[in-house]
Structure formats: C-alpha cells, structure tokens
Design a protein that fits this description.
single chain; 9 strands; about 20% strand
Length: about 300
C-alpha cells in the first residue's frame, strides 16, 4: 500500500474546513478536484474515508471510522511539516512578517526602538508595530494573539508569575533614585522626606509597590498626595516644587527638567523590566525570538 502524503494532508483540510466545498476555497481548488483527491486516497487505502450519505458540500464533513483513524496520521504529518518549516526558518537566520510590541514610554525610547531597528536591519521582511497601551490591555491582547511581546515592569520586591502559556524573559533591573525640587534643602537621610508630599503610581505599578516596600522597611509615612502614570508627569510635579518622587535611571537619562535634583540613597531597590511572550507548540516564532534577543542586547547597552 502506498499513501500519497499530499492526499493525506487534503483529508485533514477537508475535516478542519468542514466540507469539500470549504476545503476547495481554502486550497484554491475546485470542489471536484478535492473530491477526486479524496477518492484517490480511498483507492490507495482500499477504505471508504468520507461519508457521502449527507449531500451538500457546505455541510460539515463526516468522516467514517476509517477516515477518523487516518485523520490522526494526517494531523501528525501536518504538525511535522509545520515544525520543520519553523526550524528551517530559524536555522536560516531569517525572520519575517509583522511583529507587535506593547510597551510603556521609558522602554519605548531606550529598549524598543533600538531593538526593532536591529531586527529590521538584519531581517528586511519584518514590519515593526509598537503599541503604547496599559499593561492589563497589553496582556489581554497577547493572549488574543494581537500582540507578540509585552514589556512589563515590577518592583524588584515583587516576583511576577507568568500567566499559563506564557514565559517571562528578564531584560534589565532599573535602579530607583529620589528626586526632589531643586530649591528644597538637600536631605542627608531618607527619613527627612517622610512627611513631604510624594508622587505615587497607580495600584499595581512598580512605583506603588516600591513605596509600599519602603514604608514597610522604614515605618515612615512617605505620604502619597499625587498619582502619576508615567515619570515625565511625576518629574514635572517635582520640578514645580510640589512633591518628592521616586524615578529610575532610565527615566533620568534624558536631560532633567528644570528645578529637579537627584538624590542617591542606598537600599531603594529597582524595578525589573521583562519581556512577556507566549510559549507552546511552534511558539515563540523566529521573528519573536529575534526581537527578544535584540531587546536583551539593547538592555545590556543601558548598563
């Protein structure tokens, strides 16, 4: 007995598409052509594989018991071919297609842009897409297949557990610094700033976690008066003489706003920046792996 592998794959398409007519549309073949291939497969096996008692090509395909048994091997064959294509693409060093990266402002400029430039220079077929959206929305989009990589931040005192089906790749630990208005007296200890108004982050943010950790470690108030989503807004409040805040090295690498002074106290900790991506069969794709490597290189350049 000789089974044509192309016809075996066609049986799998007929089943997944739900009928001969739908399979023909998917394969860009006339329905009669699909039927002829299935009939030839039946001759090769000597078995009836498709139940033809139900007429109408748009109805769901019904495989016979023999057809369902042969479908197991057809599915395996399709998976083996897909795995081979993925591995050969990786070995060739080529990657292509769109790559969608969700990130927040400080890492867009310092990590995302350099990494995407590196990937597109070595892989001309890659189309970079950046989305600046909230972490919660980004993770939902990741699970929906609308985003390939999400850059996330956590206070180093809080270990993130990746969601099922995802993996987390550490990129960078970004140390905290204290920033105060330039006209304020320079403190010699963090406790001297305890009763000043502070800028907090939204619940669940790295900054919010860091302030909670410092309160627990020191028993000082660090009273939050303002809440800011991003560092530029917090630095603006500090520069205006309205508050003291935590900021990170990445956020302070750009020219400081007028009126801001940086104070380097010990034991402030860091925020951890990581890349969240899906794993599983045929994931991550080569283009995602290429961007993960480029992000790691860009993070290393920030040290």
């Amino acid at each position: 007995m000789h089974i044509n592998p192309q016809r075996l794959l066609m049986l799998q398409v007929v089943d997944s598409a739900g009928g001969v007519l739908a399979a023909g549309r998917q394969l860009h073949l006339a329905p009669s052509g699909v039927s002829q291939h299935i009939a030839a497969l039946e001759r090769e096996t000597g078995l009836v594989l498709l139940d033809r008692s139900r007429r109408g090509g748009q109805r769901s395909a019904t495989l016979t018991a023999a057809g369902r048994q042969l479908l197991v091997y057809a599915t395996r064959l399709a998976e083996v071919i897909a795995d081979a294509e993925t591995e050969m693409t990786a070995l060739s060093g080529s990657a292509g297609g769109p790559i969608v990266l969700a990130a927040f402002p400080t890492v867009i400029s310092k990590l995302a842009v350099p990494a995407l430039n590196q990937v597109t220079q070595t892989n001309r077929g890659v189309t970079p897409i950046v989305r600046e959206i909230s972490e919660q929305s980004a993770i939902k989009a990741l699970h929906a297949g609308e985003v390939d990589i999400v850059l996330v931040e956590d206070d180093l005192g809080h270990a993130r557990t990746p969601e099922p089906g995802c993996s987390l790749r550490w990129l960078l630990d970004d140390p905290y610094r204290v920033v105060i208005p330039h006209e304020w007296p320079v403190p010699t200890a963090l406790s001297e700033l305890s009763d000043y108004p502070w800028v907090d982050g939204p619940p669940g943010s790295a900054i919010s976690g860091a302030l909670s950790r410092l309160r627990a470690a020191t028993s000082f108030n660090f009273t939050p008066r303002h809440t800011c989503l991003e560092f530029p807004a917090a630095l603006a409040l500090v520069g205006g003489g309205m508050a003291v805040a935590l900021a990170t090295e990445l956020a302070l690498n750009d020219p400081l706003p007028v009126g801001v002074r940086v104070i380097d106290f010990p034991d402030l900790g860091s925020r951890r920046i990581s890349a969240l991506f899906q794993i599983g069969r045929k994931k991550p794709l080569p283009v995602v792996t290429a961007l993960l490597d480029a992000l790691k290189f860009a993070a290393h350049s920030q040290r």
